[in-house]
Amino acid sequence: MDGDVDIPGGIQQALSGFLDRQEERLAALGPELTEQVQAARDATSGGKRLRPSFCYWGFRAAGGDPAQPILTAAASLEMLHVSALVHDDVMDSSDVRRGAPAAHRRFEALQRERAEKSGHGGDPVGFGIGAAILLGDLCLIWADELLHTSGFDAAALARAEQYFDAVRVEVTAGQYLDLLAQASGESDMDLALRVLRYKSATYTVERPLHVGAALAGADSRLISALSGYGLPLGEAFQLRDDLLGVFGDPAVTGKPAGDDLREGKRTVLIAYAIDHASEVQLSEFDRLFGRPDLDDDEIQLLREILQDSRAVQACEDLITNRTEDALYALDEAPLADDASRKALTDLAIAATSRSV
Questions:
Q1: Chain centroid to CA 115
Q2: Per residue in 149-163, pLDDT tens?
Q3: Structural domains of the chain ordered from first start
């Protein structure tokens, strides 16, 4: 994307170095804590690195000098993302994340192995959940520490803090709204759209752009212009993610096919289908949706209802429209250079047309 920087490589280097220091720090408290650090290492390996990428290009869009430690600061958003994923998997009882056992399943297996060797021990399931919650908490703490020890001066960090604070509040609020939507047993389009915005749109695109731009000293006009690009693009990204959660290839997405249907995720896709399905379709949908034991044939039936009710096409149209809105806003934005404009254009396309 940009010849002078390897964003994924730089982010991985920053995360690995940071976790090396944390391992030394925690080893003084007890060797058992290496399990938490190793779980964090595995969880921060791979991924799309979208949030750090938007942070980096927000920085460049505001005229930031790439010689500054922007990749280390941007890595804080990847650590925040891991915290959210670990907690999200606990709340959803997900078994798999990125093709490997989710953190709580990992810790559960560790405890079960210890119990089998010793002949005694507590509940492995409860241990796994508790250990994963603590891992998510550690990653949330570490995200803040990564930003504040990145090497930027106090003035730059003070500018960025308001946006970093905002993204942590918004993603937590979005998680609660998502939890509430699932617990309600009803699909409300307004609530689904608010979950879409606060759990994903602001968290994935808008606020990372703001953090990077603020570190570079962006004025309010650029911050506003980045919102005009970031909000619709973040919504388009999550709409694509919701479609992949139902129709994606497990070998590519790293999650079982139809997991969102088993978990009963009350997304915009689902809200639209319920609003537009026939009575017969709705009866079948209500019977199956949210059942954790759905088999492949039942998953396929739910997919057909989503197709036939035109919910899939409606989401595709929303993705197209929101992406166009984002690119139009980008064209009008007062960016510092053409490289950042091209990179943000490429990111918009990659985020909304992806297969993973």
A1: 34
A2: 999 999 999 999 999
A3: 187-355 (1.10.600.10)
